[in-house]
From TrEMBL:
Pathway connected to this protein: Amino-acid biosynthesis; L-lysine biosynthesis via DAP pathway; L-lysine from DL-2,6-diaminopimelate: step 1/1
Catalytic activity from the UniProt record: meso-2,6-diaminopimelate + H(+) = L-lysine + CO2
Orn/DAP/Arg decarboxylase 2 C-terminal domain location: 34-370
Task performed by this protein: Specifically catalyzes the decarboxylation of meso-diaminopimelate (meso-DAP) to L-lysine.
Assembly with partners or alone: Homodimer.
Sequence ranges assigned to domain Orn/DAP/Arg decarboxylase 2 N-terminal in this UniProt record: 36-281
EC nos: 4.1.1.20
Record GO biological process: lysine biosynthetic process via diaminopimelate
Name of the molecule in the record: Diaminopimelate decarboxylase
Length: 416
């Protein structure tokens, strides 16, 4: 559930703010987030985990704006990061480094050192060379790094191949068959302390079966490790819970957590989740202005001022994202349009073959754009990245200014 709804007069609202007012004030393209939605989604996970010891580690990659991270930190959230940059963001936002888990296949020595200085909760290690590097870095600092090993359970998450991560052919994690041997090796390294087991099998999953299959495999592994004298304190099941973009019916966090909790009964394990999309996607929209309507030979184009550099999901994954008018009561003729941006690429589209009743100068909203929207934005075609506004009831807050053009070349240098 989210707080983007139409008012009776046809105006789209973000909580109690009319989107038409926000675009008039802040311009377009404009990301608009709802505080109540973000908090509701985070609390749904927290409540779903309930009485079981748990930590919700929000996946910063979904949306790393400091204001968003700060709101989650105020709720007591942990964070899942994949770079030193994301750790710096969490800290700048007032997040607690001691609730941070560090995922990713390519951690550099500098990133490890920084994370150890900040005393993060756990490194989610993805390979043996990484274990060795971390052991060496921690040793050189006179520290012990807490680790979990990311297990690749070889499960088909049934999602897009680019965002499916738990299959054998993916670069992520360690094959489950090799896990006991790698855990024993980790336990033998003096500057590492084994604390957890983790996995992440993919993103935008709309069924719980693959999650439960993965959990079963990990629990069996945890038993095997216990028998070998390696005690595991936490099970991190990753992120991946899907959201409703179109007509998907993803499970509610409580359905997912209830099924997991049944499996965890009588085990002394802290349960960890790393949700990104499920918290942020439907907490945000991307508002854009219709610049031109253009009739092609066999298609009509709505050319808008947002482009693939602002929101790359449709271009990159052929993702379908709902596009709706900011005022649905305007008297317009309906037509089917490809909604495209100004970037010089055929792949620059936000949606294809959408029925819309619009005229130039109208505004559209791309829904479910709060996750992997701004965080994947670029400056391609020398376009400054969009402004971001976070709405709290009737009050909008500008949480990121539109980039001034000169900032695009701020770090470039002419030859002498
Ligand atoms: N944990 C790990 C280790 C991950 O790799 C990811 C996402 C998450 C948690 C969060 O997953 P979520 O709950 O958001 O599904 N850019 C793509 C999604 C890439 C997801 C990568 N990993 C998209 O726009 O669909």
């Amino acid at each position: 559930m989210d707080y983007f709804n139409y008012r009776e007069d046809g105006e789209l609202l973000a909580e109690q703010c009319a989107v038409s007012g926000l675009v008039a004030q802040y311009g377009t393209p404009l990301y608009i987030y709802s505080r109540a939605t973000i908090e509701r989604h985070w609390k749904a996970f927290d409540a779903a985990a309930g009485e079981v010891p748990h930590l919700i580690c929000y996946a910063v990659k979904a949306n790393g704006n400091l204001a968003v991270l700060n709101l989650l930190a105020r709720l007591g959230s942990g964070f899942d990061i994949v770079s030193g940059g994301e750790l710096a963001r969490v800290i700048a936002a007032g997040g607690d480094a001691k609730k941070v888990v560090f995922s990713g296949v390519g951690k550099t020595e500098a990133e490890m050192r920084y994370a150890l200085e900040q005393d993060i909760l756990c490194f989610n290690v993805e390979s043996e060379p990484e274990l060795e590097r971390l052991n060496q870095v921690a040793g050189s600092m006179g520290k012990v790094a807490r680790i979990s090993i990311r297990i690749n359970p070889d499960i088909d998450a049934g999602t897009h191949p680019y965002i499916s991560t738990g299959l054998k052919q993916n670069k992520f994690g360690i094959p489950i068959e090799r896990a006991p041997e790698v855990y024993k090796y980790a336990a033998s390294l003096p500057h590492l302390q084994v604390t957890g087991v983790d996995c992440h099998i993919g993103s935008q999953l709309t069924e719980i079966a693959p999650f439960l299959e993965a959990a079963d495999k990990l629990l069996t592994l945890i038993d095997e490790l216990a028998a070998a004298g390696i005690k595991i304190h936490h099970l991190d099941v990753g992120g991946g819970l899907g959201v409703n973009y179109n007509d998907e019916t993803p499970p509610h966090p409580s359905e997912y957590a209830t099924a997991l909790k049944q499996k965890l009964q009588d085990r002394d394990l802290t349960l960890m989740f790393e949700p990104g999309r499920a918290i942020m996607a439907n907490a945000g929209i991307l508002a854009t202005r219709v610049e031109y309507l253009k009739a092609g030979e066999d298609r009509h184009f709505a050319i808008v001022d947002a482009a693939m550099n602002d929101l790359i999901r449709p271009s990159l994954y052929s993702a379908w994202m709902n596009i709706i008018p900011v005022n649905r009561a305007l008297p317009r003729d309906a037509q089917r349009y490809d909604v495209v941006g100004p970037v010089c690429e055929t792949g620059d589209f936000l949606g294809k073959d959408r029925e819309l009743a619009i005229a130039p100068g109208d505004y559209l909203a791309v829904r479910s754009a709060g996750a992997y929207g701004f965080s994947m934005a670029s400056n391609y075609n020398a376009r400054s990245r969009a402004a971001e506004v976070l709405v709290d009831g009737e009050q909008p807050h500008l949480i990121r200014e539109r980039e001034p053009l000169a900032s695009l070349w701020q770090f470039e240098h002419l030859l002498p």
